[in-house]
């Protein structure tokens, strides 16, 4: 580790101020009014889906095509021409996609009856192979019943088609209601026109949104964000960047996924391979379940067209390998995890939007939820959306550690600490996470919200955590011994008394007023041991009047007392004086965090007769291992005795 304590500048040791609890995490509560507003918005979106779905599609397509328009504009293409080129190319691709899918579906429908015999044969084979399995027997019976019904239907149709000369059937009578020809034509045409009308409306909206993009942005800022232009501008840029990049990169990823699927299915002899490739491209926009649905249909077709099982295995292997490559290579390479959504939020949003808008909502669930997360990130009233749906940590490391210690869970606390220590040193962890977590506990103790049992559990769990990190402390100490610049290693290579004194330094660490202070002293002691000092510990009860004589101070060079309560000036002064009366040559230091997270000490060393006062572990370790003479106790002036001498001079 190479953290030589003697002779280094104090800035070399990491410091982190104790956080302000009230400002550490923005509180976002769901009031009754907010819940009613959310319910009302959901009802409006559901009732007016015929209006909002085209608007949502147009908005997302605008986000997607905006980078293309900007690219063309940088090449000096006129604005109208750039917009028309981007929109035309996008909708031509969509139209070609639709025609391909329609043709492939029609071809598949014509070939379905030819696959019936293979399916029935394989189901019967499964039934015979697992004759003791009730599920397979039930499936076999269902298939046989369906086949019998289909055969009976075919025989009945043949009998109806044959001439029946032996009996006279009753003449059928049909009642015809005369209707308006215009109404009949409307009933036939309107269902066909509706999708094309929606598509045309979306195209028009996208064109005008792209043409008026700057004006719409300014109007939005004037409407909702004129009071905070910086926040509103950041929100618009973040939303556009996240949604646009997600849609474009997801399209590229899906295309790179669908291409080998289509080629592989064609090579394996699966009919309509283009259809399945295009279908997987679209279904991968549906989070998690989309790729599974896209794989099931080709597997079913492989089951139907081939008499054996090898084709099914090859198709499954094709999808699994392609999915693994896409998830672990292509996606991290192109965009990684830029949506800002947690995995659970993606699933919940897919369920919500599919319930609200059906299949279209399922396809749009992720980009729409990204917009909600951006809204929650920049609008304080909706910050709960970022907390519920975002993937950013909602608790600071010290708050998370404090919560785990308060819950009496040292195992998860140790796991989190080990993750931190993969790239940092133990001193950094205690300085940035451990000590601030203890400070949070001390502040709650001072507020009276912690019971004695909770204080004891919190302190004991902290001691367990420190013990769990002892192995890492030993590894860091071994690194220091192997480092030629470390004091412990230099002691063996030289006889310099200044360097050898570092290793011989004996330090006693004591808690100031309670069990939480004892835990802070244990952290300091562990770091001092890493730095090569001989360390011993004592509980806070040992510096009280009756028990201080039990401390063995003969071999101790320095005593470090930890006070997490920044208002403990009187207690610190008494502790320092008691120790120095026992051994005047003893160096005594106080560790006391600043008030309100300040880096400056709340008390001065000369005010309490201490040799040093530190606000953090790093400063305490450096001061404890530094050389210097002990500060003598100041003599207290007794004004009353002097006044008595002046009044009665005979008193000698």
TrEMBL record:
GO terms for cellular component: plasma membrane. It holds the Pfam family AI-2E_transport. The keyword Transmembrane applies. It is found in: Cell membrane. It is a multi-pass membrane protein. InterPro entries: AI-2E-like. Keywords: Cell membrane, Membrane, Transmembrane, Transmembrane helix, Transport. The chain crosses the membrane at residues 21-45, 51-72, 84-106, 188-211, 246-268, 274-293, 300-321, 333-353, 360-379. Its main location: membrane. The keyword Transmembrane applies. PANTHER family: PERMEASE PERM-RELATED, TRANSMEMBRANE PROTEIN. Belongs to the autoinducer-2 exporter (AI-2E) (TC 2.A.86) family. This is ABC transporter permease. It comes from Xaviernesmea oryzae.
């Amino acid at each position: 580790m190479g953290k030589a304590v003697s002779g280094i500048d104090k800035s070399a040791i990491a410091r982190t101020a104790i956080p302000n609890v009230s400002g550490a995490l923005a509180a976002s509560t769901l009031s009754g009014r907010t819940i009613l507003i959310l319910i009302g918005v959901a009802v409006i979106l559901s009732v007016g889906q015929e209006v909002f779905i085209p608007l949502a599609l147009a908005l997302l397509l605008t986000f997607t095509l905006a980078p293309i328009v900007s690219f063309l504009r940088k090449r000096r293409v006129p604005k109208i021409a750039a917009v028309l080129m981007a929109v035309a190319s996008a909708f031509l691709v969509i139209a070609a996609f639709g025609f391909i899918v329609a043709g492939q579906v029609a071809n598949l429908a014509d070939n379905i009856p030819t696959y019936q015999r293979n399916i029935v044969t394989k189901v019967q084979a499964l039934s015979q192979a697992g004759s003791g399995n009730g599920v397979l027997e039930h499936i076999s019976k269902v298939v046989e019943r369906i086949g019998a019904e289909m055969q009976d239907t075919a025989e009945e149709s043949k009998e109806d088609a044959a001439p029946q000369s032996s009996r006279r059937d009753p003449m059928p009578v049909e009642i015809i209601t005369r209707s308006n020809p215009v109404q009949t034509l409307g009933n036939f045409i309107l269902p066909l026109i509706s999708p094309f009308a929606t598509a045309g409306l979306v195209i028009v909206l996208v064109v005008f949104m792209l043409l008026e993009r700057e004006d719409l942005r300014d109007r939005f800022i004037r409407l909702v964000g004129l009071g905070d232009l910086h926040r509103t501008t950041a929100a618009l840029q973040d939303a556009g960047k996240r949604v646009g990049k997600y849609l474009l990169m997801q399209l590229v990823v899906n295309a790179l996924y669908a291409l080998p699927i289509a080629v592989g299915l064609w090579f394996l002899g699966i009919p309509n391979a283009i259809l399945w490739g295009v279908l997987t491209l679209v279904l991968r926009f549906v989070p998690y379940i989309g790729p599974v649905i896209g794989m099931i249909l080709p597997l079913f077709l492989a089951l139907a067209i081939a008499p054996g099982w090898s084709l099914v295995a090859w198709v499954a292997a094709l999808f699994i390998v392609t999915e693994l490559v896409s998830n672990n290579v292509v996606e991290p390479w192109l965009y990684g995890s830029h949506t800002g959504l947690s995995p659970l939020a993606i699933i919940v949003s897919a369920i919500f939007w599919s319930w609200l808008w059906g299949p279209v909502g399922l396809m749009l669930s992720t980009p729409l939820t990204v917009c909600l997360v951006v809204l929650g990130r920049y609008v304080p009233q909706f910050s709960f959306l970022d907390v519920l749906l975002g993937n950013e940590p909602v608790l600071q490391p010290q708050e998370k550690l404090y919560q785990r210690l308060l819950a009496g869970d040292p195992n998860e606390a140790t796991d989190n600490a080990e993750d931190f220590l993969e790239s940092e040193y133990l001193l950094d962890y205690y300085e940035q996470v451990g000590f601030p977590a203890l400070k949070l506990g001390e502040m709650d103790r001072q507020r009276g919200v912690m019971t004695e049992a909770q204080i004891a559990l919190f302190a004991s769990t902290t001691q367990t955590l420190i013990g769990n990190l002892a192995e890492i402390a030993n590894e860091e100490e071994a690194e220091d011994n192997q480092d030629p610049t470390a004091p412990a290693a230099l002691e063996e290579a030289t006889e310099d008394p200044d360097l050898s004194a570092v290793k011989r330094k004996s330090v006693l660490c004591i808690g100031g007023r309670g069990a939480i202070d004892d835990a802070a002293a244990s952290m300091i002691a562990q770091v001092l041991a890493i730095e090569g000092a001989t360390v011993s510990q004592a509980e806070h009860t040992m510096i009280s009047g009756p028990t201080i004589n039990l401390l063995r101070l003969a071999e101790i060079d320095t005593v470090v007392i930890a006070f997490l309560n920044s208002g403990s000036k009187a207690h610190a002064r008494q502790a320092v004086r008691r120790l120095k009366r026992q051994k005047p040559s003893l160096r005594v230091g106080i560790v006391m965090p600043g008030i309100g997270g300040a880096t400056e000490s709340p008390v001065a060393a000369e005010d309490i007769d201490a040799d040093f006062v530190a606000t953090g572990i790093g400063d305490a370790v450096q001061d404890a291992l530094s050389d210097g003479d002990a500060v003598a106790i100041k003599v207290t002036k007794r004004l009353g005795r002097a006044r008595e001498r002046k009044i009665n001079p005979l008193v000698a």
